Amino acid sequence: MHLRNHVTIRAAVASGVLLGSTMLTAPALAQEAQEAIGDTIIITAQKREENLQDVPIAVVALGTQKLQQLQVQDFDDYARYLPSLSYQSLGPGASNVYFRGVASGENANHSTSLPSVGMYLDEQPITTIQGNLDIHIYDIARVEALAGPQGTLYGASSQAGTVKIVTNRPDTSGFYGAVDAEVNTVAHGEEGYVLEGFINAPLSDNAAVRVVGWYDKDGGYIDNIPGSLTFPTSEITFNNAPYVEDDYNDVETYGGRIALEIDLNENWTVLPSLMGQKQKSYGSFAQESGLGELQVQQFNPERYNDRWFQAALTIEGKIGSWDLTYAGAYMKRKINSESDYVDYAYFYDALYEAGGSFYDNDDNLVNPNQYIIGIDRFKKQSHELRIASPADQPLRFIGGVFYQRQSHNIEQHYIIDDIADSITVPSTDSNIWLTKQLRIDRDYAAFGEVSYDVTEKLTLSGGIRVYKYKNSLEGFFGYSDGFSSRTGVAACFTDGEGELLPPTIKGSPCTNLDKTTSDTDFIHKLNATYKLTDDAMVYATWSRGFRPGGVNRRGTLPPYGADELDNYELGWKTTWAGGAFRWNGAVYYEKWTNIQLSFLGANGLTEVRNAGDARIWGIESDIFIRASEGLTFNAGFSYNDAQTTKDFCLIANAQFDCALPGPEEEENALLAPSGTRLPVSAKFKGNAFARYEFPVGGLEAHLQGGLVYEGKRTSDLRLYERSIVGSLPSYTTVDISAGVTNGSWSVELYARNLFDSRGQVTRTIQCGESVCGDPDGVTDIGGKFYTVVTTPRTIGLKVGTKF
After folding, report:
1. What is the spatial distance between Cα 107 and Cα 117, in angstroms, rounded to a whole number?
2. DSSP β-ladder status, 760-766 and 784-789
3. pLDDT confidence of residue 114
4. Residue 273 pairs with which residues in a beta bridge?
5. What is the percent of the chain where pLDDT is above 70?
6. With bands split at pLDDT 50, 70 and 90, how would you rate the model's confidence at 14?
7. What is the mean pLDDT of residues 330-357?
8. What angle do CA 729, 731, 735 make, to 5 degrees?
9. pLDDT of residue 686
10. What is the C-alpha to C-alpha distance for residues 200 and 198, in angstroms, rounded to an integer?
């Protein structure tokens, strides 16, 4: 896969303090804090409104004010401050999320596994088949991060955890709003700026509307420097002069949200909303090996245009004393992209003299420079109907039904300009390769949880989710029959007389893949909670999550099955000294079976195999201290010891062992022996945050500082590939800020990544399959490493007003 170039916490009684299981959050503003009552924070992790300190789940929650204090504007910003969460990123809108070390290093190709972490916007799932939405964070009530399997209430893509983005709802109490503006500059780069605002307007005593808008321009900091390239076979030389540019990875994001809340009567509320965003990013978000820091040498356009909207409807009401909720949504997303693919063109030419295969209609060799134009179209609809018994009764029930259907219309054009018609994929202008497929993932479920207060102190609960998934992949991938006699058009379906059947997917020349896989099963959750005092509780949980199986794009391979995660957890939540000190945490053991491992197979095609098992021992904890009226401190960390528990083989089959011949003489290679550390996630990740508020004349001033530490991570589960790509070293970032406010306006000066740390987030290597298989070859032929690094030091000035 080619790298897509991009990558007072003061506790006031009136507004509240939010403390998650691994990270404390600050209060929402009084007018926005619909979840806060005094020092109590109300969250919806269990699809009920509950005090966070009473919820027996490891929940990280970042409230409105905390998100503002941490300068959070997008996914990367808040992910840093969630210790249990790790991620890989190739740039905006291209991040893969993991919880508690549950990661196999999958490459997240469009035809591989669904994510293991569910993403929700309010009540509706927004997880798409290929990566999460990079939602701009403004006027957000809170971000809830639920670590561990949440499958009973949240479904298929919540195998390892769930992230919920909860928006501020319309409010009938009065008219108010805010406008915030920011200018900033990135070290080694250019300037950026942000303009955001919202208005809350009552329409009547029982109806209100909330309108939010934003524009965010992030300055670039990666330089595309001049260079030339000569292909070995043809000795054709060309340069990248048209694309040379300093700071060329800038990002432009704009969008809005409108929500209407109507109280039909005392019992029924209707909440329709519409949210949309457009994000345009350019250039590379990785630096290239062999060049200077923050430099690359790209020979083709690089851009990524991601636009989406979601229309949602939530209906809340009562039938007698029971709560009834319907949550439905329709989302549409389209990504237009251009990517440089010249690395592969060069390496395949160096290895196999592939450049001699590309000629024009007059049999003249053409420049084998290759680039990709992608058009990815996503559609997603989800519907959930649930009912909940009164929360103040000793016996409580919540249950419902769920349906989800998401499709991904995949269109990837691998182009070499001016090639002959005979080697051009039919129905294209100059494609050497075409992927034109339709993937559909369907989920059906019925779920329920029962809780019973055995005594005033002891509560037992259990839940089950019965599910069915049905996933399909059909269409075309490959070359023309003039270029390959085995793949592409040559492998398309024919009638009984050898004639090609008409294509089933519009825009493809024919069909060479049409498969479906499905399964029905159930998962469960058991929990016991004991209240030691009104301010301290302990809990024990056994929960299970799953990820659906799917179809391999190479039709000769069988579908891959579901993988499962069992979580055994002991946790505690405590509050001391009237809320001045809080200590929460959890220890856990997780068993991951039938792991879906994706990797590049023959011809560079991604394959998915259920290849092995793993286990994770871990602990996560946080503390919050209110040292004085104006000084607060909080810190959180997670430690995960994650490793395989049996040999990871290319093919999982009890009838033969690793490194021995398997069916059809295929070698069942040993990829990683038992005891190999799982990749991507650090063993230790931690953060600390301190804030001091003090009066200055008639103003309220603050000083604050935050620190994030990310430990060393391995790059790949497979040991051979790991030896080539290497590990990602640990790094630390420091953020500081200072500001003043008089309540209606505020001014703040901040610095993110104060010491300009070049932390490595993701690393990939671009080269031919055989080159990557030979460490010496990488050096001799020049394999390129691309490393996505943390954004350089950013200094900004923010000005805001509330009305």
Report:
1. 15
2. antiparallel
3. 86
4. 259, 312
5. 89
6. very low
7. 89
8. 165
9. 96
10. 7
8 Å CB contact between 796 and 177? no
Residue 28 predicted with pLDDT over 60: no
Contact 186, 221 (CB under 8 A): yes
- Strand 648-649 and strand 606-610: pairing? unpaired
Neighbours of 457 (CB within 10 A): 12
Spell out where 341-394 has E strands: 371-388
- Is the CB of residue 542 less than 8 Å from the CB of residue 525? yes
At 698 the three-state DSSP class reads coil
pTM assigned to the model: 0.89
Residue 192 has pLDDT above 90, yes or no: yes
> Quick one: which of 271, 40, 318, 65 has its CA closest to 169?
271
Highest mean pLDDT among 15-19, 434-438, 776-780: 434-438
Give the count of beta carbons closer than 10 Å to the beta carbon of residue 554.
19
Does residue 66 come out as left (phi exceeding 0), alpha (psi in the -120 to 50 range) or beta? alpha
CA angle 582, 585, 586 (to 5 degrees): 160
C-alpha span between 179 and 195 (Å, rounded): 8
**Cβ atoms within 10 A of the Cβ of 81, count?**
25
**Mean pLDDT calculated for residue range 345-373:** 90
The two beta strands, 295-296 and 223-224, are: parallel
Q: Are 775 and 746 in contact (CB under 8 A)?
A: no
Query: How long a stretch of residues is the chain?
Result: 803
The residues, any chain, with a CB within 8 Å of residue 741's CB and separated by 6 or more, are: 699, 700, 747
**Percentage of the chain surpassing pLDDT 90?**
66
> Rounded to an integer, what distance in angstroms lies between the CA atom of residue 407 and that of residue 475?
13
DSSP string across 23-77: -EEPPPPTTT-TTEETTEEEE-TTSS-EEGGG--S-EEEEEHHHHHHTT--SHHH
pLDDT band at 466 (very low <50, low <70, confident <90, very high): very high
Contacts of residue 57, defined as CB under 8 A and 6 or more positions apart, other chains included, come to 21, 45, 46, 146, 148, 150, 541, 571
Residue 488 has pLDDT above 70, yes or no: yes
Can you tell me the mean pLDDT for 408-424?
96
Take residue 488 and report the two structure tokens written for it: 């592409």
The token duo for 638 is: 């997670």
Confidence of residue 600 (pLDDT cuts 50, 70, 90): confident
165, HSE (Cβ side, Cα atoms, 13 Å): 24
Strands (E), 168-321: 176-186, 191-204, 207-218, 223-224, 228-230, 237-239, 251-263, 269-282, 286-288, 295-296, 303-319
| Residues in a beta bridge with 163 | 119, 145
- Are the C-beta atoms of 687 and 635 separated by less than 8 Å? yes
Mean pLDDT of the chain: 87
Q: Which of 653, 655, 733 is nearest to 687 (CA)?
A: 733
Quick check: helix, strand or coil at residue 782? Answer: helix
**In the chain, how many H helices and how many E strands?**
7, 49
| DSSP-derived secondary structure for 461-507 | EEEEEEEEEEEEEEEEEE--TTT-SSSGGGGS-B-TTSPBPPPSSTT
CA 99/CA 57 separation, integer angstroms = 14
Residue 221 structure tokens: 């900091």
| Token digits of residue 184 | 């900033």
pLDDT tens by residue, 376-410: 999 999 999 999 999 999 999 999 999 999 999 99
Nearest to 689, CA basis, from 729, 734, 650: 734
Looking at per-residue confidence, does 718 or 27 come out higher?
Answer: 718
Alpha-carbon distance of 52 to 41, in angstroms, equals 6
Rg of the chain over Cα atoms, rounded to whole angstroms, equals 27
CB distance 419 to 359 below 8 Å: yes
